[in-house]
Write a structure and sequence with these properties.
Its main location: cytoplasm. This protein is of the alpha/beta class. The protein has helices spanning about 35-45, 65-75, 80-90, 95-105, 120-130, 135-150, 185-190, 210-220, 230-235, 240-250, 270-280, 300-310, 330-344, and strands spanning about 1-5, 30-35, 55-60, 155-160, 165-170, 180-185, 195-205, 220-225, 255, 290-295, 315-320.
Amino acid sequence: MTSAANEHPRVPDEERNGTVKPSGSTEGPKVVALGGGHGLYASLSALRRVTDRLTAVVTVADDGGSSGRLRRELGVLPPGDLRMALAALCGDDEWGQTWRDVVQHRFGSEGDLKDHAVGNLLIVALWELLGGAGTAGSTVAGLDWVGRLLGAHGRVLPMAAVPMDIVAEVRGADPARPGEVTRVKGQVACAKTPGSVLGISLVPADPPACPEALAAVEDADWIVFGPGSWFTSVLPHLKVPALARALTTARARRVVALNLAPQPGETDDFSPQTHLEVLQAHAPDLRVDVVLADGGVVDDPAALDKAVQALGGRLVLADVAADDGSPRHEPARLAQALVQIFSE
């Protein structure tokens, strides 16, 4: 079944900072959102308007920039995607906007602090103060403390208790050998290597899942996958064995929010339905209840609907894109689409 785009009207400008929780609910459903980076930032910016019971489960495979430096120097989980998730959960009042800007701020010096994000340093400092950076207890406690400081509308958890590396199978990484498949290690390398990504795995292959993340998934009413970098932000959750089992067996219903455009370096030639086919290949037992896409970027709704049905779900087309033409979700529109899905 495909819902028409006009079933999700645009949210008036004056309502964009408000909440749009399902009718009859004072708190909203229990929602777990999966991903990392800018995609998860978009979904959390929408979901905090929908529910007060929100948990982000974040990928911890970043090996570049400030996160990569802290990971290599201190042996900690890369904090960058965790920081971005916390920033997305900040409110729209002065307190929330100020702390969001503080934790996202990067130093512009030419010294050792160059390009370090303030929030990354704050998170790692709390990890060290609360029992030693890298210990399971300090990791979650530190994130909870930062969330309290920011007034975050939800909780942020890592998907695993140890840092990990993504390994991608890439066809055509060497332009001189377009048919050759090579293994590329590291999130940054996976995103930047030319060619077509065929699949991913993790090193270590069986990392310990975060116990609090497993509990949140098992208790959830809804689980939201995407939007985001498909191979480096969304699919890694399904390669952590304990987390993958929880995601496939949980009583929750599942939503996949598709990207508005292919991700350069990862999914350059992907259609919306190709994203779902890759998802199914990486998690054959995963049942999907709803796939949400922007009708303005779907060239072949019938083909997408067929791919959605193969996952056991239904397709909802809605106007969720920003007005500026960029491949970016407008939080209030995405929130409006999600609240209607959660209410059905």
